[in-house]
Design brief:
The complex is a heterodimer of chains A (182) and B (318).
Chain A (H helix, E strand, L loop, with lengths): L10 H15 L21 E4 L9 H5 L5 E10 L9 E12 L8 H5 L5 E4 L13 E2 L1 H6 L18 H13 L7
Chain B lengths: L2 H33 L16 H11 L10 H20 L15 H22 L3 H32 L4 H7 L4 H4 L1 H14 L11 H4 L9 H26 L8 H26 L5 H30 L1
Helix pairs in contact in B: 1-3, 1-10, 1-11, 2-10, 3-4, 3-10, 4-5, 5-6, 5-8, 5-12, 8-10, 8-12, 10-11
Classes of the chains: A alpha+beta (182), B mainly alpha (318).
């Protein structure tokens, strides 16, 4: 640009050449996917993993699921009373937990709603199948994905503590100083 | 010149004709990719996709050779050869070093320019014979474009011939002096821009504008015939880059040109080819009216001005 605001003839042409040359000087950010795995952030929604021992077959996830892609079968098991005069206890035992990933829309409501922390997001994403029916994954496959669940990311600085820690501290204070026998 | 000598020279020209366009094509793949913040081919040949064009060639060879039912089969089949062979013939006459030339011709410049304008016929044949409206439109666009740019191309080349006082390409290089870069600067620019238009390279690729006429004259081509057209485009880049280097940049002249003169010619040719690629990446396509205006209102007057300047300087220094 000259002082009176007009451009020098050809300045735009040179600018175009300079732009492409500058881009060539930078390193391309392309990652060669099958050779280098992507670094996914901790909360990536790849697939839903199941921690089976935490599941109580309460059915909350199956009922909250917007497209009904979770199937749960369970039966009650009777635990006989250990002491005479006590009542027998019952416990839900999980027979089948399946998520149909051809229906799942990755909303994460099941994970939010689970009161016992049995469902987790895993960043695993490479589970394509040749047949849509093979996308129904049973609890063994969902359980295997637990190994890929990353630890939760650290809290932000000055973040509020999780409620669990605060309530545990409160309970400890109520119980008295540590080491004080009841 | 013995028969063996001729055979060796022609073999070298043929090898150069088959390899240099691939080198330019691969350079275009990678340079264009990096200019667009991509990485380009990475798999073929394991090291940065160096064998991509070989893989492409294998792919083209496997494809079915389709001739449209309504096409004029003979003209349709012949067109790729007509487009490609002139570049091979032109390469024969382009000198790479002192004496290093397929066939030294006293009328070298005239011969090369005459042969190169035959290649256009291949595009016209393809456009006409395909029985496809897009092909025909593309072919006519090619015709209009080449009609316009042939004139400044020849005029700017004539300026150098006038300056050197010879039509022999080797003679032009021998007569060339570094200060000609300034003297023939206008002719250099006009020749380079006209060469881009002759090759229908972006930004002068209106005959192949994919958003308007699909692929112009090449729309109906598949397989090897299509590959031959592509090869013709890249051979054309090599030939016109070599011509620019020989006519305007002093060919084999440079430090140590007694021993490595041919390296200088190749280096200058490749530098011009890289500029061709660089310009392709940087500029958008010209419209039909812009194309014609650039040729008739700018390049032709400029080349006439250059001719006058060349004549005046010749007379003054003679």
């Amino acid at each position: 640009m000259t002082d009176d605001g007009r451009t020098v003839p050809g300045a735009g042409l040179l600018k175009g050449l300079a732009t492409t040359a500058r881009t060539m000087g930078h390193r391309a950010v392309t990652a060669q996917y099958p050779d280098t795995q992507p670094e996914l952030p901790p909360r990536s929604r790849g697939v839903i993993a199941l921690l089976e021992q935490n599941c109580t077959s309460c059915m909350l996830c199956a009922r909250e699921c917007p497209d009904w892609c979770i199937t749960i079968d369970s039966h009650k098991e009777v635990i006989p009373a250990k002491e005479p005069g006590a009542r027998d206890r019952t416990k839900n035992s999980l027979d089948r937990f399946a998520i149909d990933f051809s229906l799942c829309m990755y909303c994460g409501i099941c994970i939010e709603v689970c009161p016992f922390d049995a469902l987790f997001w895993s960043p695993e994403f490479a589970y394509a199948e040749y047949d849509i029916r093979n996308l129904i994954h049973e609890k063994d496959r969902l359980g295997a994905w637990m190994a890929t669940v990353p630890p939760p990311p650290p809290l932000d600085r000055h973040a509020e503590e999780p409620k669990e820690i605060a309530s545990a501290a409160k309970a400890a204070a109520k119980a008295g100083p540590p080491g004080d026998p009841e | 010149m013995t028969a063996l000598d001729v055979l060796v020279r022609l073999t070298i020209v043929l090898v150069a004709f088959l390899t240099l366009p691939l080198v330019v094509g691969q350079a275009e793949h990678k340079i264009m990719a990096h200019m667009q913040a991509r990485v380009g081919p990475m798999y073929a040949g394991a090291f940065h996709g160096w064998a991509q064009l070989v893989a492409d060639g294998v792919k083209f060879a496997q494809k079915e050779d389709v001739v449209p039912a309504a096409a004029d089969p003979w003209v349709f089949r012949l067109a790729p050869a007509v487009a490609l062979i002139p570049y091979l013939v032109a390469m024969v006459a382009i000198p790479v070093g002192p004496g290093l030339v397929g066939q030294a011709l006293d009328l070298g410049l005239f011969f090369v320019l005459a042969v190169l304008s035959i290649g256009v016929l291949g595009q016209l044949m393809a456009g006409w014979a395909s029985a496809n409206k897009f092909s025909l439109l593309g072919g006519l666009r090619t015709a209009a474009q080449l009609m316009a740019y042939e004139l400044p191309l020849v005029l700017s080349a004539a300026s150098v011939a006038m300056a050197a006082g010879t039509l022999s390409l080797s003679g032009i290089v021998v007569a060339w002096r570094p200060w000609w870069l300034a003297w023939q600067a206008i002719a250099l620019v006009v020749f380079f821009v006209s060469a881009l238009a002759e090759l229908a390279r972006p930004p002068f690729d209106m005959p192949y504008a994919d958003s308007e006429v699909i692929f112009g004259p090449l729309t109906e081509y598949t397989g090897l015939r299509f590959a031959l057209f592509l090869l013709a485009e890249y051979a054309g880049i090599v030939v016109f880059s070599a011509l620019t280097a020989v006519l305007f940049l002093g060919g084999w002249k440079g430090p140590f040109d007694g021993t490595v003169g041919w390296v200088w010619t190749l280096a200058k040719t490749m530098a011009v080819a890289v500029l061709v690629i660089w310009i392709r990446v940087s500029y958008p396509r010209l419209r039909a009216d812009q194309l014609q205006r650039l040729a008739w209102q700018l390049l032709v007057p400029l080349s006439l001005l250059q001719l006058a300047l060349t004549g005046v300087v010749r007379v003054l220094t003679a």
